[in-house]
Each structure stands twice: as structure tokens, then as C-alpha cells.
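Appendix B, example 12.
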Amino acid sequence: MGSGSVRGECDARFEKVRELFGASFADGSEVGAAVAVSVEGVPVLDLWGGFVDKNESAPWERDTLVNVFSTTKGMTALCAHRLVDRGELDLDLPVATYWPEFAAAGKADIPVRWLLCHKAGLAAIERSLEPDDIYKWDVMTSALAEQAPLWVPGEAHGYHAVTAGWLVGEVVRRVSGKSLGTFFRDEIAGPLDADFWIGLPESEHGRVAPIGQMGMGKVQGDDEDVRLVMERMRSPDGLSMRAMANPPSILTGPNTKEWRSAEIPAANGHATARSLARVYGALACGGVLDGVEILSEEGLARCWTEQAVGPDKILGLRTRWSLGYMLTQDRPSARYGPNPRTFGHAGAGGSIGLADPIAKVSFGYVMNAMGPHPLLDPRAAVLLDAVYEAL
């Protein structure tokens, strides 16, 4: 498949991005994918191409949705920041202030902010869960309320790969009275007209491109991060594997109607690249886009201010976190452009959404060929670099 198969709109100065995007189909790195960019809130690039599956049963269309896994976490964090802006949520108060049951097992003093920067020590649930439990909100939040921290809270950070969604989501639910997916739709996606869903209505299932098996995408570029994460995952009883595979349906659920319909705020958002660029476009432009205010200037500062840095107890590599967002690092495998305040979130397989409030740039990339890179997929990295070269 050549670059001629790529469709969409692209300002002339970003033609190199189009060429690189097309080349990724030609060399077999992609099956189906989309990329979108805005500058100062204005869309400058919106491209898509390929097929919804490796059998090439149907082309990837303008409104094709795909599961973006942990890229969802950026939207979940944004819901919490909205409540902070409104004075309804205090990040320094104990979680138990809003969720009394959470105080069990020595967790009475854990502040809300540690849920957002992965310092709470609740990256895994120790008791065995049934596959269908992942679709049962009350079961998952009750299990987390009962769980004792797996390390001393606040003393280290470790990626709460799946539990973060229920932890932050339950706080949002307790404060707002709405489920996380409903709050996100009412407060953010709806007002911005962003095609991003946490809990996909059945009427939209027909637009979803199935996600491929991990490893469909090629291992490219600097693969040291891949090696470190895979080493952690080799032990079936290790903390890293337990964080990723309990309930076991975390690994087997995607592509089912149950997965798509549930609200799993760390892992099952369904989106277009355009919707990522739209939401992050608001965050790149002072929190306001087309007259819709999503976040205050103070809220934006929370998104790029470092809260945790160093060895990650789950991933086994160095990570930097703000309150709910991945931050750029000085290595190719995790460098989100040239500016220090860029923030966003990547998802398993390669999807990513970013906001650069200095350059006022937003970036969204989604795909269905799953790569193994944990922080920044090289397919997205080469596109992002070309965006900055064009500015």
C-alpha cells in the first residue's frame, strides 16, 4: 500500500508528514491508522489510511473508531482536573474524604493526587478476579477499596496500568454523581464535538476497527524500553504481570461488544485521531477552544508540572509523570517534541495524544496494528518530529 492510499486533508507545509505516514503503509508497519494535528487550535492535518483489519475487509474511513487503550487515561485525568477547577475536588485531601470505603487496609491517608501520579501503591489487585469482573464497576472498585498498598504510598511510583481508571473514575463518580464516561461525554467530548467515547453506545460499534494482536506492528528504533518491559512481564506471578492481567480479560476482552460497551477508564476509550487532536488542542491553547472552556490556566499547569520521576516499579524503566499525564523525557523512546511542557498519554500498541502549550500544537495518532513500545511508538515519533520540522 503506497502513500496514494492515504486520504484526508493536509496543509502544504506538512506534506512530509503525509509522505511519512504513507510510507508506513508501504513498508508494512501499518494496517489501518490515522493522524491529526492542530496548531493554535486550527486543524492543519487530518489523515487516515489502510484497512480496518489485516484481511483488508474494509477501508479505514474518516470516522473509523479504534480502541486506544491507555490513551484513555488522559481523558480520565481531565475529568478530575475539571472538578478541581470547580472547587469540588481537592487533590491534597485523602481519597477517603470522597470514597469512605477506600480507607480500608491502611489507605486512610492516601491523597487524591497520588492516584493521578501512580504513587498510591495500588497498581494491581492481589485477589483473583473473574474474567467478567472487568465489566462490573462495583466489583472492581470494591476490590480496590479492600486492597492494601503494594508498596509504601508516596515513596515510589509504578504505572497503575488498569487500576488507575477505576481509582480516578470512582472519585469522579462520588464527587459528580455521574459515571466517568457520562461525565466525560457531558463535560468534555460533547461540548467539543470530539468523537471519543468511554463506554461506547451499541449504535457506534459498527464503526470500530478491531485491534490486532500485540506484535503486528514492527519493533523499530530504540527498543531498550521494549526489552526492559518484556523482562518485567516474563514472570507470571510478578507484580508487573499482575498489574496487566488481573482480571485476565484485560488481555482477551478487546474486540468484544462487552469490552466496547463497558466503562474501563484506563483502557477502553474508543476514538479517532481527530478527536485526540481536538481535546488536546483545547489544552494546547490555554484550555479554551472555539469558545468552549475545558480547563483553567491553573489546571493546565497541573497537567505539565512533574509529580513523579525515576524508576517505575511496574514498567522497569524511567518515567516522568504529572497529575495524570506522561511527560517528555530526554531520550528518543519518550521524547514528545522539543518543548519541556508537552504532556499527554500513550496507549498500548502505539496510540497517543499530546498537547504542547508552548508551540500551541496538539497531536493525535491511532492505529490497529499493535506495536510493543511502551511510551512512544516509532511510527508516531517520526510523524511528530516531522510536524515540528514543519513549524
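Confidence is low (pLDDT under 50) at residues 216-221. The first strand starts at residue 7 and ends at 10.
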